């Protein structure tokens, strides 16, 4: 990722980096340019340019350079530490991000509450202040088992429920990565039935057991946040009008547009439809005051679905 | 600070902004007494433009860049024979990173944690560099997406400092004593005592409009028994009025969904397993909207058995859909 960002670096960014680089360098006294470049995700040329700049800076009357630096044969040597001997304090966003990352990692499968991360978080909180931040991913019963299989590259035989087709299937997968997004845990896996990579929602895995087979590790790239299928223009859209106070129900789905109508009591949403069954469930939850505007063939969908559920109520009672 | 040095003609090649900012920073860190702009320009000979307006503009830009990257520049208005002039310095104790005394394995654990969190910002990586952890981005087989918003860092600081915050939300100005922040189901919530409503309220952070203003430290006390997890229950079916009694609903789940729902609610909530593969589960219900949303997500595979009034409510909801069918 570091190699993709190029072009002149803006001054604030260079300065920020310099203020971390100088104390780091002074503490070590002597280090290779290659190591510096790697540590700071810079090119060797950028490291040299920054060191040259630092060697030109100084306090009046310019006899004291900020840093006594000397480059020879790919090695950097520094003299007596001056002025910038400690890094700049953590900014509010940096402190926030470190604490949150720690808390999030503690809420993931495989976390050890008494391990080094817990101690690091205690030290961070002691400096940044007790903060009352709670990260709660929750997690389905099978998450730990699937995560362990992902670490080991162990194949699993699973029973998976696909809501859009409303069917349970048996498949063999090799879990590669487990991740949480928007309140659900997913496993990214090699799906041996389709021969391709697929994501499965872990709470929809009805049953899982390891087969004892181990697959060779491979590079995995997690999907980008949010955009799972929404960008796909082939997927059919539905336009619905709903009471504005119910729009929270669709917030966790991708929505092309959501506009409040005149007076604001109702809103109109355009959203991609995963499947007819999915839309049916959404409409039932949104209630009788929600109307499908487009396409016409789905106008009666909710009423038909409600009739099916009512039929179940007719046959299932306390005494049946 | 002695007499002001003779000002050399402004030479742009000599005064690359980055170099000048670094020198300004060093000067303000090293000075024993606060310096006025005039004194600063005198010390950094030839680095600022001679023209007063241009000089002031360049200094203001330098100062705002330094503040932007987190440098705590202090300013005060002088009295005496320099009355009215503003002077600047940086307190080294506030500038420097506190020594966290992290052991190598603790630093490594933090690095792994940052690698396991995916967000749109590079805040975590910047922080790691300051703590001495850089270079490789370890790959993780367990990760989580964590959304970030500009409002979150100031809110966290306000929670830690017990400072009242003000922000706009749904076009209304709110004042809140923030007790805590919670990430749940992909959303950030701030929970605290709302001044105007005089009660504990929950706000979604992504809906905060514009900036969060943080007031003075130590403005409130968090109740000793406050626990964000109980104030904001994990089960949405429990969300809502605390005074209202929790209804326990019994729902029959047919064989096609039995395993799925049993996994979700836990075996302890399964009251009965029937011969046809269906199960009866007991689930809490305070918030009717959330309960109905959960129930109808299961369509005809879930039927409310009891209590009667809840069952009647669901039937009425469904019947309203079918009114136009006949």
Outline the structure in words.
With about 325 residues, chain A is α+β, with helices and mostly antiparallel strands. Chain A has 4 domains: about 70 residues, Arc Repressor Mutant, subunit A (Orthogonal Bundle); about 35 residues, no CATH class; about 70 residues, SH3 type barrels (Roll); about 80 residues, Alpha-Beta Plaits (2-Layer Sandwich). In chain A, about 30% of the residues lie in helices and about 30% in strands. Chain A is built from 8 helices and 15 strands. In chain A, the strands form 4 sheets. In chain A, strands 10-9-8-7-11 form a 5-stranded antiparallel β-sheet. In chain A, strands 13-14-12-15 form a 4-stranded antiparallel β-sheet, with no helix packed on it. In chain A, a hairpin with a 4-residue loop joins β9 and β10. In chain A, α2 packs across α3. The longest helix of chain A has 18 residues. Chain A is elongated. Chain B has about 325 residues and is α+β, with helices and mostly antiparallel strands. Chain B has 4 domains: about 80 residues, Winged helix-like DNA-binding domain superfamily/Winged helix DNA-binding domain (Arc Repressor Mutant, subunit A, Orthogonal Bundle), CATH 1.10.10; about 40 residues, no CATH class; about 80 residues, SH3 type barrels (Roll), CATH 2.30.30; about 80 residues, Alpha-Beta Plaits. Chain B is built from 11 helices and 14 strands. In chain B, α1 crosses α3. The longest helix of chain B has 17 residues. The chains are: A alpha+beta (about 325), B alpha+beta (about 325). The interface between A and B is large, with 116 and 119 residues.
